[in-house]
Write a structure and sequence with these properties.
Number of strands: 3
Strand order of the largest sheet: 1-3-2
Radius of gyration: 22 Å
Number of helices: 5
Structural class: mainly alpha
Largest sheet: 3 strands, antiparallel
Length: 181
């Protein structure tokens, strides 16, 4: 792995640790992780191979990313305080995030340090046509995990804001002076 790849992977892992502290749910809560995966996708996703079972591999890992992202978003606490929404990643959310990001890092390190032959044998046996299929699968897994997590938090935040607005007591009516008496 290059230094840039280590920095990118570690930055993605650290995003959730930033959310272990409760903070305001604001635009940058969405833009930072989406920006990082956009750069990753632009940098590493040259093509999406469609031969053999490449799409099956890509869809399977994207599905794993979606499941991790949705579960992580569901296990992020959202609450209202002083007219603002606050979020805090729970332990389950943090574990799922690190599991997803760490699995990709671990796979890459394993392939670079002796696992390449095993991956090649698996690829041949399962009709995966190129190493680009693995790259696309893991990049799209990361993108899907981040997008679904952010989308889940966004939707939950909107729902929470609506429920808080409905539950808030109505402002007291302005007294009307009756001048007919």
């Amino acid at each position: 792995m290059t230094t840039t790849e280590w920095i990118t992977d570690i930055a993605l892992v650290l995003i959730v640790f930033r959310q272990l502290r409760e903070g305001r749910l604001e635009r940058r809560s969405f833009l930072i992780p989406l920006g990082i995966v956009a750069v990753v996708a632009y940098s590493y996703l040259d093509s999406v191979p469609t031969e053999g079972n490449d799409l099956v591999l890509i869809a399977a890992l994207a599905g794993v990313g979606a499941a991790l992202g949705i579960a992580g978003g569901v296990h992020t606490r959202i609450r209202a305080l002083d007219g603002h929404l606050l979020i805090k990643a729970g332990a389950v959310s943090a574990i799922l995030w690190v599991l997803g990001m760490g699995a990709r890092m671990g796979f890459q390190v394993w392939v670079e340090h002796g696992g390449a032959d095993d991956v090649a044998r698996f690829s041949i046996a399962h009709h995966i046509t190129s190493d680009q299929a693995w790259v696309a699968a893991f990049v799209l897994m990361a993108v899907t995990e981040v997008v679904t997590r952010v989308a889940t938090i966004y939707l939950r935040g909107r729902a929470h804001a609506r429920s808080v607005a409905v539950a808030a007591p109505a402002a007291p009516a302005v007294p009307v002076l009756d001048r007919t008496a």
